[in-house]
C-alpha cells in the first residue's frame, strides 16, 4: 500500500524543481524541501533514544514544521505538533509524550552541523497500520486528549478527497498546524505535487489582501469555516473554483460561481467521512453520505439502526477511523466500541461521534447537534469542561459552568456561536482578569464572549448540572452591555465619531455606549467581524491598514488613530535615506510587505538610498485588479522623494510587473529611467496589464527556458542576468537561493 511519504518522495523525483511551499519569506521546491527533511532526519537520528516513538514538534507555522513531519516518518517514528501557546497547555502535552528530544527552534539551529549520510541510512519502511501522528483535541478533564492516527488513516483520507475533488491544486493553509485541518492542508497538495501557501494568521481576515494573494498566485481551492466563507464569497465571488467548508453545521451559504463542499468528520474519523456538494441555499446544509473508506450508521438510544428519514440518532462511524486515544485506554473503550453491523474482518470497531443527525428526503445526513455538551465552535470541537476546569484554577473560584449561545441575531453573522461562562466565587473579579488568566492556558477561540459571576450552578431534578439552562435569558443584554461599567471617553471629532459608528454597526451595539478607549475584541468582536470592520475603516480613512496584525495591537479607536498619526500611511518604507547617489525604489511582492528585502538592504551601499513600496494605500477597488492604477499611485509617492529623474526602479515577482509599469509610465511622461531591475518577474493572465504584447514577458520566458536547460545539463548556476535595453531581468530557480542577499551582485 502507499503512503503520504511515498507520494511526496515520488514528486521529489518527478518534479524536483516545482514549488512545494510558499510563505511570506521563502519559496521551497520539492527537492529543497526533501534536502531539509534529510538534514532534520540526520540530526534527529543521532538524538532519539529507543523509547522515543513520538517526537514533539514545537515550532511556529513554517516550512520547517512540514519538513520535521516527513523527517520523523523517514525514521519510522510518529510526530505530534504542539502550538507554542498557551504555554501551560503545551507543557501538559509534552509531559504526556515524555520524549527525550523535541524539534524546536534550538534543535533546528544545528541541523547543518551534522554530516549528511545517504538517505538510505535512515529511511525506514513504515507499516500501513503504524502510528503516524498524535493530534490533540479538547478534553473533558481540562487536559487535551491525543488522537492516534496511522499512515493508513492519512493515506485513505487523501484518496477519498481526491475522488470527491478530483484534483487538489495549490492550497491555502489557514489553520494551526497542530489541528487536523491544518495537517490535511499540508498532505493533500504535497501528495498531488501542488503548492502549500502558508498564510500569516493575522492577514487572513483582511479579505482584500487575501483576494489579492489568491489572484496573484492563481489559487483556485481553499478550506474555510462557514463564517469566513460567507465573507469571502461576498467580496471575492468567482475567484475560487472550490471551497470546502470545515465545519459540521452550515446554513445559508451557496454560490452559482463557486463549488461549495460541506465536509463532516472529526480527528477520530481521520478528519473526513462525508462530503456534500451544496446545490442551493439550505437552512441546514446536509453533510451528505459516507465516503468510500467509511460506513456510517445512525443509531437510536438502544443502538438500533435508523434508516427512516427525519428521525434523529447518533452518528457512528466505522472503517477508516483512528487507533484510539493516546495513554487513555478507558476513553478509547468508551468511544471505540465493537461494530455489530460489520460485514468485514477489517471493520470491527465503531466510533461513537456523539453527534446527532437525521436523514432528509434524499437520504443525505443532516447534522443536528451534539449528543453531549461538546460545542462546535468556528470549525473546532470544544469541550466546555476544559474551560470550566481551567477557571477553577483561579484562587477563590469554587464553581463554573460553560455553554454556547447563538449570537447571530446580535452580530448578524450566520451561525455565530459564542461561549458563555458563569462562575461562583466570594471574590469580585474583573472580566478582563479572567480572560487574561484563561488565555495563559487556552487558545483564543476558547475564550468566552460573556463571563458572569453567578450565585450557584444550575442543577436539574437529578442533582446534575442543568446544561439546558446554563445560559441566562438576558444573554443579549449581557452581550451588548457587559462593558457599561468601564471608563467612558466620548469621540472628540468627526473622524472618531465615524469610527465609533463603524464599531457599533459591526458589533450591533449602541454607538453612544462605545468609548474610544474600548478594545474591539473585549466588546465581543472576533476576527471575522474585524475583517468587516477593516473594510469600513479603510473607506473612512481612505487608507489601507497593512494587515490584520496592526489592528490586533491597535484595536481601540484612540490607539488606531494615534498609530496612523505617529506612523503615517505613506506606502514607502525607508531602509536608507541617503541622497549621495540616486536612490533605489523596490516594489513589494504579492505578499505586500517590505520584509522580503531586508537581507538585500544590508548589502546596499550606505551612500545610496533604498526604499521599498508596500501595499497600504488604495483609493478604490480598481487598484485591486489593475497594475496600471497601482503604478500611478506609487509614482505620486516616489516623486515626493525624487522630484525628477533619473529613477532606479525594481521589484521581485509581482513587484517586477508593477515596477515595469511604473517605469513605462515615467518614460511615457518624459522622465528618465536609468535602470529597471526585474527580479524573477511573474506574469499572470488574470491580472489586467496595460501592455499585452510585452517584450519583457518574452525575455523573461526565454530566461526561464534558458535556466531550465542549464539545470538539466547539470551546470551549477545561481543567477542568469539578461539585458534588454536599460532593463535587467534576473530569473532564478527558488531552490538555488536561500536568501535574497544573493541578489546583491546585480547592484
Word description of this protein:
The protein has 24 helices and 31 strands. With 747 residues, it is an alpha/beta fold. β30 and β31 (727-731) form a beta hairpin. Mean pLDDT is 79; it is low at 617-624 and 683-747. A 7-stranded mixed sheet has the order 25-27-26-28-29-31-30. Among the domains are: 386-481, 2-Layer Sandwich (GMP Synthetase, Chain A, domain 3); 494-547, no CATH class; 572-746, 3-Layer(aba) Sandwich (Rossmann fold), CATH 3.40.50.1820.
Helix content: 25-40%
Poorly predicted tracts of residues: 617-624, 683-747
From the spread of the alpha carbons, the general shape counts as globular
| Count of discrete alpha- or pi-helical segments spanning 4 or more residues | 24
Oligomeric assembly: single chain
- CATH T-level topology of the domain at 572-746: Rossmann fold
Give the mean pLDDT.
Answer: 79
Q: Largest beta sheet: what is the strand line-up? A: 25-27-26-28-29-31-30
Relevant terms:
single chain, 747 residues, alpha/beta, GMP Synthetase, Chain A, domain 3, Rossmann fold, seven-stranded mixed β-sheet, disordered C terminus
Amino acid at each position: 500500500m502507499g503512503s503520504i511519504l511515498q507520494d511526496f518522495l515520488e514528486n521529489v523525483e518527478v518534479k524536483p524543481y516545482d514549488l512545494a511551499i510558499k510563505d511570506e519569506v521563502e519559496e521551497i521546491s520539492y527537492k529543497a524541501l526533501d534536502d531539509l527533511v534529510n538534514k532534520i532526519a540526520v540530526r534527529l537520528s543521532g538524538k532519539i533514544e529507543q523509547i522515543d516513538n513520538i517526537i514533539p514538534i514545537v515550532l511556529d507555522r513554517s516550512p520547517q514544521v512540514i519538513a520535521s513531519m516527513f523527517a520523523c516518518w523517514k525514521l519510522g517514528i510518529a510526530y505530534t505538533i504542539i502550538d507554542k501557546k498557551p504555554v501551560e497547555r503545551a507543557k501538559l502535552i509534552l509531559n504526556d509524550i515524555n520524549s527525550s528530544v523535541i524539534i524546536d527552534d534550538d534543535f533546528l539551529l544545528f541541523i547543518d552541523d551534522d554530516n549528511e549520510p545517504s538517505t538510505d541510512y535512515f529511511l525506514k519502511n513504515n507499516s500501513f497500520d503504524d502510528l503516524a501522528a498524535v493530534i490533540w483535541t479538547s478534553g473533558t478533564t481540562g487536559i487535551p486528549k491525543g488522537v492516534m492516527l496511522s499512515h493508513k488513516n492519512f493515506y485513505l483520507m487523501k484518496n477519498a478527497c481526491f475522488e470527491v475533488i478530483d484534483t487538489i491544486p495549490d492550497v491555502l493553509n489557514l489553520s494551526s498546524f497542530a489541528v487536523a485541518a491544518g495537517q490535511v492542508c499540508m498532505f493533500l497538495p504535497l501528495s498531488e505535487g501542488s503548492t502549500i501557501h502558508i498564510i500569516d494568521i493575522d492577514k487572513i481576515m483582511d479579505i482584500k489582501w487575501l483576494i489579492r494573494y489568491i489572484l496573484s498566485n492563481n489559487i483556485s481551492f481553499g478550506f474555510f469555516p462557514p463564517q469566513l466563507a460567507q465573507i469571502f464569497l461576498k467580496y471575492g465571488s468567482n475567484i475560487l473554483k472550490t471551497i470546502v467548508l470545515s465545519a459540521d453545521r452550515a446554513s445559508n451559504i451557496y454560490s452559482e460561481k463557486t463549488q461549495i463542499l460541506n465536509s463532516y468528520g472529526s480527528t477520530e474519523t481521520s478528519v473526513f467521512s462525508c462530503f456534500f456538494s451544496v446545490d442551493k441555499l439550505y437552512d441546514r446544509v446536509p453533510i451528505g453520505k459516507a465516503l468510500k473508506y467509511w460506513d456510517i450508521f445512525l443509531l437510536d438510544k438502544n443502538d438500533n439502526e435508523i434508516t427512516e428519514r427525519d428521525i434523529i440518532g447518533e452518528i457512528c462511524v466505522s472503517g477508516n477511523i483512528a487507533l484510539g486515544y493516546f495513554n487513555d485506554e478507558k476513553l478509547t473503550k468508551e468511544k471505540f466500541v465493537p461494530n455489530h453491523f460489520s460485514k468485514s474482518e477489517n471493520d470491527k470497531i465503531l466510533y461513537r461521534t456523539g453527534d446527532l443527525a437525521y436523514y432528509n428526503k434524499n437520504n443525505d445526513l443532516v447534522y443536528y447537534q451534539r449528543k453531549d455538551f461538546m460545542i462546535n465552535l468556528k470549525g473546532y470541537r470544544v469541550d466546555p469542561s476544559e474551560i470550566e476546569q481551567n477557571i477553577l484554577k483561579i484562587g477563590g473560584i469554587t464553581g463554573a459552568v460553560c455553554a454556547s449561545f447563538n449570537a447571530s441575531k446580535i452580530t448578524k453573522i450566520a451561525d455565530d456561536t459564542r461561549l458563555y461562562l458563569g462562575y461562583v466565587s466570594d471574590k469580585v473579579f474583573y472580566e478582563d482578569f479572567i480572560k487574561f488568566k484563561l488565555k495563559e492556558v487556552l487558545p483564543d477561540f476558547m475564550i468566552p464572549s460573556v463571563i458572569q459571576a453567578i450565585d450557584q450552578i444550575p442543577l436539574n431534578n437529578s442533582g446534575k448540572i442543568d446544561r439546558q439552562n446554563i445560559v441566562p435569558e438576558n444573554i443579549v443584554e449581557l452581550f451588548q452591555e457587559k462593558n457599561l461599567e468601564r471608563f467612558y471617553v466620548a469621540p472628540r471629532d468627526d473622524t472618531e465619531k465615524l469610527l465609533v459608528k463603524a464599531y457599533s454597526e459591526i458589533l450591533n451595539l449602541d454607538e453612544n455606549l462605545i468609548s474610544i478607549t474600548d478594545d474591539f475584541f473585549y466588546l465581543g468582536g472576533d476576527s471575522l467581524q474585524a475583517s468587516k470592520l477593516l473594510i469600513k475603516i479603510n473607506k473612512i480613512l481612505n487608507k489601507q491598514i497593512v494587515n490584520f496584525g496592526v489592528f490586533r495591537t491597535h484595536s481601540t479607536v484612540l490607539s488606531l488613530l494615534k498609530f496612523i498619526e505617529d506612523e503615517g500611511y505613506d506606502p514607502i518604507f525607508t531602509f536608507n535615506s541617503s541622497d549621495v547617489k540616486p536612490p533605489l525604489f523596490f516594489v513589494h511582492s504579492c505578499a505586500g510587505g517590505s520584509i522580503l528585502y531586508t537581507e538585500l538592504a544590508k548589502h546596499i551601499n550606505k551612500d545610496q538610498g533604498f526604499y521599498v513600496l508596500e501595499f497600504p494605500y488604495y483609493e478604490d477597488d480598481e487598484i485591486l485588479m489593475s497594475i496600471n492604477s497601482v503604478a500611478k499611485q506609487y509614482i505620486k509617492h516616489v516623486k515626493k522623494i525624487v522630484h525628477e529623474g533619473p529613477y532606479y526602479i525594481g521589484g521581485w515577482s509581482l513587484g517586477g510587473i508593477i515596477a515595469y509599469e511604473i517605469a513605462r509610465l515615467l518614460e511615457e511622461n518624459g522622465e528618465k529611467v536609468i535602470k529597471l531591475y526585474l527580479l524573477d518577474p511573474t506574469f499572470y493572465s488574470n491580472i489586467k496589464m496595460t501592455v499585452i504584447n510585452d517584450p519583457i514577458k518574452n525575455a523573461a520566458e526565454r530566461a526561464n527556458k534558458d535556466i531550465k536547460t542549464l539545470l538539466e545539463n547539470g551546470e551549477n548556476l545561481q543567477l542568469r542576468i539578461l539585458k534588454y535595453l536599460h532593463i535587467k531581468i534576473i530569473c532564478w530557480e527558488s531552490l538555488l537561493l536561500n536568501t535574497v542577499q544573493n541578489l546583491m551582485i546585480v547592484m
